[in-house]
Amino acid sequence: MKLKVKDMDIATGLPLVAIVNKKDANKLDLYYEDRILIKKGKQCVVAITNISESNKFVPEGKIGLCEEVLKKINSKTGDSVNISIVSRPASLSYIRKKLNKGKLSYKEFYEIIQDIINNRLSQVETAYFVAACYTHELDLEESVSLTKAMVNTGEILKLKKYPVMDKHCIGGVAGNRTTMIVLPIVAAAGLAMPKTSSRSITSPAGTADTMEVLANVNLSVNEMKHIVEKINGCLVWGGSLNLAPADDKIIRVEHPLSLDPVGQLLASVLAKKKSVSATHLLIDIPLGKGAKIETRKKAMKYKKLFEEICKKLGIQVKVIITDGSQPIGNGIGPSLEARDILWVLKNHPNQPYDLREKSLKMAGIMLEMGKKAKKGQGYKKALEILESGKAYEKMSEIIKAQGGKTIGPEKIKVGRLRHDFKAKKNGTILHIDNKSISKIARASGAPQSIASGVYIHKHAGQKVKKHEKIITIYSENKSKLNYAVEILDKINGIKVVS
Amino acid sequence: MKLKVKDMDIATGLPLVAIVNKKDANKLDLYYEDRILIKKGKQCVVAITNISESNKFVPEGKIGLCEEVLKKINSKTGDSVNISIVSRPASLSYIRKKLNKGKLSYKEFYEIIQDIINNRLSQVETAYFVAACYTHELDLEESVSLTKAMVNTGEILKLKKYPVMDKHCIGGVAGNRTTMIVLPIVAAAGLAMPKTSSRSITSPAGTADTMEVLANVNLSVNEMKHIVEKINGCLVWGGSLNLAPADDKIIRVEHPLSLDPVGQLLASVLAKKKSVSATHLLIDIPLGKGAKIETRKKAMKYKKLFEEICKKLGIQVKVIITDGSQPIGNGIGPSLEARDILWVLKNHPNQPYDLREKSLKMAGIMLEMGKKAKKGQGYKKALEILESGKAYEKMSEIIKAQGGKTIGPEKIKVGRLRHDFKAKKNGTILHIDNKSISKIARASGAPQSIASGVYIHKHAGQKVKKHEKIITIYSENKSKLNYAVEILDKINGIKVVS
Lengths: 498, 498
Prior knowledge:
18 helices, Barwin-like endoglucanases, homodimer, 498 residues, alpha/beta, 4 domains, Pyrimidine Nucleoside Phosphorylase, Chain A, domain 2, four-stranded antiparallel β-sheet
């Protein structure tokens, strides 16, 4: 059937969509989400059908195309194209198989992931894939296959170094910006660590947001390679790279129901590591009320799964379960966290000791894994590197290599507007809730407003005197500050006992 | 946040969508499929967020609205609107609950269905609902709740008559247009039967398509009511009515994976019946290779479920399992089927006896259920009505009431172009495959081209002589006819043994 192109002026990074009038659809026997082949001369593209019931949107005889489709066949409004139905992609039958409790092979996962990346599956179809993996949990072999499929459908960073170190934290704890302390210690010891991190989706800051206060985090895989081969470490935003790119599209359809199928979560974490050719990996599972993992049973399940899958992937892994019951570090929000980190690296008295300790322990484990310290000597070695100033030097090198300028922690600008929350009586802090602090910090403007967030003066277990500050909220915007204070007053996330 | 409206010129009957630029989304902490409240003066509407990565599509400071949203707040391009985030609908947490193997209550199903109908759930979210019902099959109570939820979210046809008869066929058998013979017999006997039927989605004709050859099938609930109260019967297209309207939207997201969760299928069938206030129902489950139900076990499962759910819904039901191994009737395609039906109703020698017999049996059962015949006497009574010409008279009345004109079967126009498929040798027809015949009939142009389709001269079990016609393909379009013949030659759906 011949149709005239209408440029719909739609370009949202969505699946390749072609919109056909209902009457034409009927003639062709086309139904929603059927695939059509659109041909213009020798150029052609397969798109997913959407049907217009109205003649205004797409009239009979026309076909509405999104920018992505137009580009592929080099077409514009008024062009004549030929369309015909093509069969559905095989990946759909694999998704159906999984929904029916079937087991998928590597080849099947590969096709599904490939089709997701290339926009050949619609969002509804991708949602069925997520639902299938959620209701029929992937077994070990499937998790490995999915991980490999995610790796092999993207770019891979290859380094001339061995070992290649990496770390990952399951998350859910406010602050907890250990990566930016562990990385320079490990790199200063001579180990390669090509670190990719994420930006915040629902938290007040991701590691990439915090690093961005100090340096550029939008690098290419090639730039990463050059930097790591020269100075051992880098810290870039994973989202700007084409490493295991299926993840973002899957997360997007998981969002409305906040689904996170275990097998898929593990696969997407490990695919990112495998994509940077990591050989040694430290995984941190914070456990506690308000963290992502709230029961020891679940933490142990994840630990075991990570160990089993990593073994099959040829990655040496160590999984630690840490205290995730309260925020770690004092600053929450990109700039406040970056300031904390520089204080730790400079051994400054303002440094948050909980963050320092946790980072040293983790760095110690990684130094032992990478054979830069004997068994039991890792912590000591990490402490030496930190105290000697070598970690700070290495961080300065990394910041410079990533186009930033070394600045002192005191020069980091934090929110102009402030609100202090003070103790109403003498007592002891019983609990500071992760989720509540994150909510307040986001309300204040973080992470979009990098200088906004929360500063924690007193942590759980510490004594506090009447009128002493417990937390300070920083913001750049009066109404956001008010909103954050409102939330603070309402949710009662800070408990003090006398 | 204040944004300027941009009319996106999108109106596809899709969920209420508002498109926000990525930068504004970041400022507001908005993510895909989050809900926003859009306010213009005192008017407001809740829409689902979509995010534009490009400045061309929706620039910063603007908000792209679809026609449906514009209408609700009476807005146009350039208007200033205020937007704020609102929490997700409760229905999402119920869908999540079901995905986690939870059991849903009537109230929970009601909210989900209500939100689907009112476009408050996105297609991805509706897909999760389908996936949840598919992987965790609804139990009896849930099926009843879902049915009631579907009924109560739509219009209900109330009649001053009792009993109210209805019938349903699970489908998958080519031809099999019993409704149009059963209906006039039952109505002529004095029983009310407000019949709604569907159009074809993937078959060569739905009952509504076939009835449309003779009369208008796009009636309102009120028109149905008037006609049935006057002459006992009508046959209208269910899709034009607001009876249990959730169905269409659910079917749409089921399509890409051809999913049909049992509980949902039963609920949607029975909701349509309950919506026309049916009190007595005959269900036909054709069983056989190529039919929708291919194993006796599955047929028995459906039978039992129908019986149990109907009991809870207060509908008297009888479920029959019939032979679905081959097409029933000779004509396949709207006009060819309508002609068969008129031949049966006129007791004409050209009538297909298999269709006549099956219809008489079904009408007989319904006459007994409706107390118009004693037990065991239904068939005889149905035969009397048919042979006396009263069924034909009643059908003429119904056609007239629905704005049609009575025409003789010989006046029905069938495809101008023809291709005969003849026996290559003397023998017996072993098998005529439903799916193959449907495919050929659709290729010939049915149901869009009402005169196109297939005519079956010889059924399975009948003897055939060399050069005798087995089937004829009718079409109005040369290339479609060729395509149909190509399929006929390729798929080998007709088996003859010597």
